[in-house]
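chain below, 394 aa
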Amino acid sequence: MQIKLPLFGLFTALALQVHATDFLATNVYRVAAGQTITDEQWVAAGIAETDGIFKNDLFISSGGQLALNGTYEGNIWGAAGGDATLGGRCERNVRLAGKSVRIDGSIDGNVIAIAETIIATTNAVIGGNARLIGTSIILEGSIKGNASITAARVVTLGGTIGGDARVNAPDILFSRETHIGGDFSYSADKELMPAEGVLGGELERIVPQSQPLFSTARLASRAMWFLAAFLAGVPFIAFFPMTTAMASQLARKAPWKCLLVGFLASGALPVIGLVCASSIIGIPLGALALASWGIMLYLSRIIVGLVLGTSILRSTGASISRVLLAMALGLAIIYLTTMVPSIGVPVQIAVAWMGMGALILAMIQKRRLIIRVPDELKQLEELKQENKQKEETS
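prediction:
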């Protein structure tokens, strides 16, 4: 009885949690200004506009525009294929991603934003810490906590940061209204000289230091990735031995064909997935295409590693230990090769294309065998019947 009661309480809590969660998929998702949503929301929509009151967390994905102009008492997790705008008030934390992110409201908690362009307007007030990652970032509002900003091109600071700020970008610009209450550390192409009164703390420029080619940290990182790939390869080989064998044989006998198929698939599958995901009807197909692309991209190094290891060992044995040893040797060569800057990226691309192409061709060949086997069995059965009839007549 002591075991049943906690289990009953756990199941009851889970049931209540499921009951308090809404899962919605629609072309257009709108919540009017006078509407109140009490349950946790999981939404997938083509276009989303929310102006009401949300009493619980909101998880929302939009294929186009995402406009968050309501009042949110819980956390917000939002992703948009187009522009994502937060013009309302969130009493907890916000995490946004999109082609562009615009913050024009108030957030009591922390913020994480990832987009090509991120703009925090003069109306933006962030009560906690902010983590902004994008290509171009403009900060004109107020951040009461610390700020961590990373941009591929330019960061423009024109607002107020109450705590410390860390900025990593090739080009960093200050306006006259900028004020940073704490320390300011940065990494930029040129040394900065902020005007007097801009900084309340210390100024520090972080200069990236070149690491040796085979440093302990880089070797440890590659060792972790090697171990992860090896652990993923063991069940894949165990559960799909025929696909593994056929893909390895194709990569060995027809490498250029595998490279071509892998090149075409690596570009086509993401495009198909994104196009399908732009509509509600196509979201499952788009998710399947993107998932297949990601899985084959990761498994490609296992196939190529197995081919390399087998070629080096020149083993004719088919024991699982020999196969795993060959895969481990091949994976080690791949990960060590990617540490060399001049050839690391080309090697990764070649491995991905060849392995992906070999897997696709192996699955096509396997399907042909599955279709062909019943016909061959039928022919064999017919031949047996003919022989039996001949024996009876004779």
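Residues 19-205 form one domain. The chain has two domains: 19-205, 216-379.
thats it, cya
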